[in-house]
Amino acid sequence: MDSALLRLLAMRMRGGLRLRLMQLASLRGVLFFLVLGGIAWLLITTGQLNPKTQLFDGAGLASPVLRDQIDTFMPLSLLAMTLLTVLLTTGPSFHFSPTEINLLFVGPFSRRDLILYKFIAYATGAALSAALIAPFAQSQTGSVLSAFTASFLTLLFVQLNSAAVGMAWQKVEGTRFARLKWPVTGVICTVALAAIAYAWASPDYNLFDLLSGLRQSWIGTVILIPYIPFAELFLAQTLFPQLALWATVATLINVALLWAVIRLDGHTSERSLREHARMSDRWERMKQGGSFWATERSEIPSIRHAPMLGGLGPMAWRQAIKAVRNSSKLIAVFLVGAGCTGPLSSMAGISIIGDRAMVALFFFFGYILPRTLICDFRGDLTRMETYKTLPIAPWRICMGQLVVQVLLAYLIALTMIVSVFLFEESMAAPVALALAAFALPLTLLIYAIENTIFLLFPAKLIPMGRADFEFLGRALIEFIAKASVIVVAVSLAIGVGSITFMMFKTTLLLPALASWLSLILIAGVAVIVMQYAFRRFVVAEAFD
């Protein structure tokens, strides 16, 4: 690779380190560091990193049950990611910013040098992410070195495999083989639905048993050969020969993928440039209040004057109009998906009120939904200066930004609760009513925390490329911080309800009401903290 690009990489890393140190010296940086350190300390002191920790199904982290699950489902997950890359191939394989395109693409550098330059940048991000993952994976792998090696090589594989598969499909597009995409997709979906129906019809056989049987069959083994070494990395018990052997195999696979990416890049360079421009346009649209996932804008009639409500009404109405114009299709998809939760879980034999299902639902409502449906401060970067100069109380501005986002998320949650209530026999009507009541303050708390973090630490809400490891690491830390606050809030609300029950010895109605009021109070405190973050937001420090 050209020495100028190596020097540019070194300067970028040095500049990034200097920027992080400057941020750490600020009040926000100190708070961020204390929160991160507190989370790590809690995980260590509570035994979450101990190999004897029990999982939801009672299996320890070092138990044969978990090892079988990793060996079975990790290769299948990597295969699913590959298939989704082909089906939803959007965005450039390696993202170059507009500045890099303007300066590097016209320089005396070959395409191979530019791909290697970007790969090294991604590898640096993967190393940082692996360093964050290593303490959590150490309990399974046995040592920090093995955990770091397994995480680092797997993250590199995710990026390179996604890039190689995406480029290969881009090369195929325009040929007669591209016509097979949707017929093959239809066949795969039909087979998957038939398998789910079969698992639902068999009382002693569920979807996980079906996937396990596929993994253990010779056909599944042949299909999953490229993915099995990365599962074996996390299952290696000794550094030598097991870890050394599988690390060598994984490295060879990554080298082969990098070679394939360099070879395929010559056939997809023009489309890559178009994708870079499209990604930049989408980010600019997000800063102006649009949705990243919206591809079309729908024109709908609007009223001439929104209700004032002390200044809260116009902002809430504007966010509602923006949601309908930019994200109507996305909202419809989420509502349909929420409505199908009950019948699909019943067909798959999965209890929606089980521990694993509750964790999946929390991940959906706490991470996926806030990141995709954006109708608050996070989509109004270009209007922050206007908001700061409005003669309106900051708490009204904050509530005006939150009300539409909270109501949309609450509507999706209600749809899911009704769907589960109709198809889940173990969910009684009082439980469904309690979930519907507690979902509203919990949703307000989630989005108040989400906006507070964004106002204190503004950052891009979309990954730059298919595997932006800096984005993934930051999103992971934010999710852990948000989950910790929510767990503490829910624990406090449950504690108030328990104390109320022990004091009055009544039915569960009064303790439930006390817990609900406590959760509303905590959500109100979160809005006050959000107001403080809005006051401290400096428009001049906003990123491009």
Automatic annotation (TrEMBL):
Transmembrane segments: 21-44, 73-94, 115-137, 143-168, 180-201, 243-262, 330-353, 359-381, 402-423, 429-458, 479-504, 516-534
Keywords: Membrane, Transmembrane, Transmembrane helix
Domain of life: Bacteria
Keyword DNA-binding: no
Keyword Transmembrane helix: yes
Protein name, entry field: Uncharacterized protein
